[in-house]
Amino acid sequence: MKIFRVILIFTMALFLAGCWDSKEVGDLAIVTGMGIDAGAEKDEIKLVLQVGDMSKGQKDSQGETEPIILDSTGVNIQAAIESLKIQSTRSLYFSHNQVILIGEEQARRGIACFLDWFVRNENTRMEVPLIVAKQDAKAVLQTKTTQNNISAFAVKSMLDNDVAPSFYSKINLLSFLSTHINKTTCPIAPIVVSKIDSDKNTILEIEGTAIFKEGKMIGELGIHQTEGLMWILGQSPKRNIIVKNDDGNAALAIVSSQSSISSDYIDGEFINEVNIKATFRISELAGFKDKHSDNIIPFINDLLKDDMYTKIGSAIQSSKNYKSDIFGFGSALYKKSPEKFEQIVENFDEIYSKSPYRINLEVEVLDTGKINGILTDHQNKG
Amino acid sequence: MLKQSRTISKMQMLFSIACFIQASMLLTSFFTPVGGSSSWLAVISSYLVFAVFTIPLIMLIKNFPDKNLFQINAIVFGKVGGKIVSAIYLIFFWTLSSLNTKDIGVFLQQTVMTKTPTYVTIFFLMFLCAWATRKGLSVVTRYASFFFGVSMIIMIFSFIFSYNLMDFSYFLPILDIEPIRFIQTTNVSLNIPLGEIIFFLMIHPEVRDINKNSGKVVYIGSFMGMLNILLVVIHDTAILGEAGKLFTIPTFETLRMISIGDVLSRVEILFAIMLMLLLFFKISFMVYVTTISIAEILEIKDYRRIAFITAALVYISSYIQFNDSYIHAEFGITVAPLIWTFIEFFLPFLTLMIFIVKQKYKKGSEQTA
Q1: Would you call B124 and A181 a contact, using CB atoms and an 8 Å cutoff?
Q2: Distance from CA of residue B62 to its chain's centroid?
Q3: Which CATH superfamily is domain B10-363 in?
Q4: What dihedral angle (degrees, nearest 10) is formed by the CA atoms of A34, A37, A40, A43?
Q5: ipTM at complex level
Q6: Band of pLDDT at residue B176, cut at 50, 70 and 90
Q7: What is the mean pLDDT of chain B?
Q8: Do A338 and B241 touch (CB under 8 A)?
């Protein structure tokens, strides 16, 4: 029995060590960003991979490794990967992929057929953001910004941080997929562009939001409309709101915000309602010389309301023009009254494009910062 | 007749039932595509139905505290009839053991050991199960409370850390499901995790004082196990919503999304560990039951002699069964719940009814005499 146990232990140590197919880090091509651009043929795609070169250990002055860009074409993602495998001496490793970038041209051709690979593959993750690249995905993946050599990480942190619209961090493969299979709600994705700024530095910037329908990009919202979209979806922009008129301007930080949407179908009309409650703190105030400290807050409140109405209304109007419900009004009706939803689901897009909407805003400026009123007003009194 | 001595406590049986049921959390994908956002309600309703349907099982334990299911069959159906009914149970035990073995093999290959052939992982698993079986029920069930505790902690941990990913509006509108689909979901949930506790009718003679409070042990144990399944279903629905129906292992997918800052991510490995622990327990228990069932039918006095043979049979059948996971899932949704209902609930009910009628007839004839 003892001999049997010894043999067993040796057998298990030999076969269960888990190292039989091990690969050293240097043998891996760790994919940090994936891009899909339109191929030359209509049914062809160009797969672009940004790969961290771990073998060289080459570091630049900022201590970051230089990424390598690989690309190949194929009828689908796996076909393109297969041809990359022939070119590459290392094994492609997708578990650390940070972003999926789709070139605008390919986004307009359609991406539904490629979602399958991302959902099916055991190395991909559902929390990876899906982004549309304004030019093509390769251009964004090749970009080296002053702060980050690896653009995939730069884009990811841009979406996650508090300065940029952090609601984009919630738009990932899962949210895209969920809305894609939803009967009425249309998927959205941020649009990123690679630019040269006035100091000749390359920068990456979020330029708006792409609207998808039936797997194809059909339109986009500008940055102001995107702000409206964020208010409606309950993801207020994590930055100061700038309001201005001819007399002056103000920067207002959001202290708290809540939003909800509701929909109803009454007498053949699909009615949508947006309710937003937000409180603000004044970060900066300039101008408004004709205003006094005691009436500036109501005045700023009105300016804020006008600004929010414009942005929210513009976002809704734009989505109606595209006949694409990106806010989930249809889902809200389904959750409230499935019977009413059944009445409109067949012809939803048409009904939605003609539906009236109401925006209820409750806006309050609570805090004026360390000083009361307007600095210029104090100067006049002094 | 197999001799079974009282080796485990009621508390061990309670935790064994809990672990046994929650080990089926991998199979929630059998009913969540049918039940959709109402699956959690179907899980609750299945427990309520189970509470009623399991009364015959508890009554059989109370009436035969010293006899296992096969011995009860021999008493109730006679020697030949009993063997036939027991053979049906044996096939059921064997099939379920193989299917669960197959499940853990597929799970390991799909998630953590993607390049290791399943026949290697299953081989070592079956070896361990056979070894545990040879050591007896007390060894098989010894760590049930530990496994239950670990899996509950992992479940609670994943619930807390994935709370920010949850959207509870996915549960609306409540009960927006065709009645027939709700019944189907309830039926799958009733048969696949809950009804499988019929296995415990083979070991109750080994539980000390089982004639006292056996109902409590069954109900509390199954409730604890079901609570974990319910948590899993709520967790998956709240994170994945409609997309949940696309995934073969939805819970694994949800846990892959958890990351706590840059410090803690890839926590799905905890779920993999939890499932491996639970399925190891469940399969060991099933192999033990299948082994003593074969011993009982073939009238082998020392079941330990056939532990490795049984494990080998389970290993082989798991390897040849359902090589297509889609067909396996279809079987789990459509065919299995119907056949399982007959074996898990109807047969014990029939056994109890015949026993009661026989008892009455016996009393009547005694009074007449």
Answers
A1: no
A2: 22
A3: Hydantoin permease (1.10.4160.10)
A4: 90
A5: 0.80
A6: confident
A7: 87
A8: no
Q: If 0-12 CB within 10 Å is exposed, 13-18 middle and 19+ buried, where does residue B263 land?
A: exposed
pLDDT tier, A377 (very low <50, low <70, confident <90, very high otherwise): low
With residue A297 as reference, give the H or E element that holds it. helix A296-321
Which residue ranges make up each domain of chain A? 24-221, 223-382
Residue ranges covered by each domain of chain B: 10-363
User: How far is the C-alpha of B353 from the C-alpha of B351, rounded, in Å?
Assistant: 6
Residues A231 and A225 sit within 8 Å (Cβ to Cβ): no
Antiparallel, parallel or unpaired: β A67-74 and A45-52: antiparallel
Q: Do B169 and A125 touch (CB under 8 A)?
A: no
Query: Does A124 lie at the interface with B, CB-CB under 8 angstroms?
Result: no
DSSP string, A74-118: ESSHHHHHHHHHHH-SSEEE-TT--EEEEEHHHHHH--HHHHHHH
pLDDT computed for residue A379 by the predictor = 56
* pLDDT average, residue stretch A285-294: 72
Closest-CA residue of A relative to B111 is A122
- Kindly report the nearest CA distance between residue B270 and chain A, in angstroms: 17
CB contact under 8 A, B243 and A174: yes
* CA–CA separation, A278 and A362 (whole Å): 6
Tell me if B257 and A338 make a contact (CB, 8 A cut-off). Answer: no
Query: Mutation test of the interface with chain B: which of A98, A119, A335, choosing the one with the most B Cβ atoms within 10 A?
Result: A335
pLDDT tens digits for range A309-333: 999 999 999 999 999 999 999 999 9
**B267-326 pLDDT, tens per residue?**
788 888 888 889 999 999 999 999 999 999 998 888 888 999 999 999 999 888 777 767
C-alpha span between A241 and A283 (Å, rounded): 10
- CATH fold of the domain at A223-382: GMP Synthetase; Chain A, domain 3 (3.30.300)
| Beta strand extents in chain B (DSSP E only) | 259-260, 264-265
Which pLDDT band, with edges at 50, 70 and 90, does B108 fall under?
A: confident
Please judge whether B256 and A12 are an interchain contact, meaning their C-beta atoms are less than 8 angstroms apart: no
Q: Which residues of chain B are within 8 Å of residue A176 when distances are taken between CB atoms?
A: none
